Amino acid sequence: MNSLDFDRLEQQIKPTKLTCVPFLTAIQESLKSYVDMAQNGTKPGLFIGYEQFDSDTGGLLRASLNVITAETGGCKSTFATNILNHVAVKRRKPTAVFSYEMLQGEFVDMLFSINANVNRNKFNTGQFHDHDLIRMTHAVGEMGQAPLYIFDVPSTVEELEEACLQLHAGVPLELVIVDYLQLVTPTSNKDMREQQVAHVSRSLKRLAGKLKCPVIALSQLNEDGKVRESRAIAQDANLILNLTRDEDVLTLKIAKGRRVAKKEYRLEFLPLTCTIK
Q1: Which of 1, 10, 115, 159 stands 20 to 30 A from 173 (CA)?
Q2: Stretch 217-225: mean pLDDT, rounded?
Q3: In which domain, by residue range, is 65 found?
């Protein structure tokens, strides 16, 4: 046997890491899910708390990367906080948040503002009234039960992934939020900036697949209204939502979505209580 034949034989007996579900199994599983949806009203995705959007899309798909884009000051973090409030606080679904911009205390302030209907500015001045303190005390009962995990220490995407997998082993995560993608600490300083951001984007997409839950990554837009610093983000994302603000009205636009129609949603923004509805 010559070396070429030996190489071919070795390739034949070498186990492959790739696996493939038989097509018949795939279609049977899909049909079962269709029947479940029809009979029990089961939805394929995770609802984020906006009725018309959730109705049109069926929610955020499991194992999907969802990118929310906006200009600086476009309410990205506020919108994400309203989503996590609905998912983690209201619906008690385990949620991990990786914040590279806001500290955990800032998220807590905003969540108290939303749930206790307290003026957000009072968290800066400390000028709370008795009725504010009473409402916040009552809110602790609901907020304290939320399976919410907030990480506000700068980390690489590998460290982010490790933290998620450790959490997931004990408490299966149903949502991961990254605020925001361009601020994730680069793994290597030798790569060009576009390559660094592309690495983060691809890693978050793989993480969504491993966790079998949606990942939401916030991203800034550049001056031309495009996703900042890397075209890979737009390529990797299953869904891209663009958020624009006009005073107290937000427009949420589906900019990319293979399984959903491009559509716009008008949302009311109440800046004093950080509420978007």
Answers
A1: 115
A2: 76
A3: 44-276
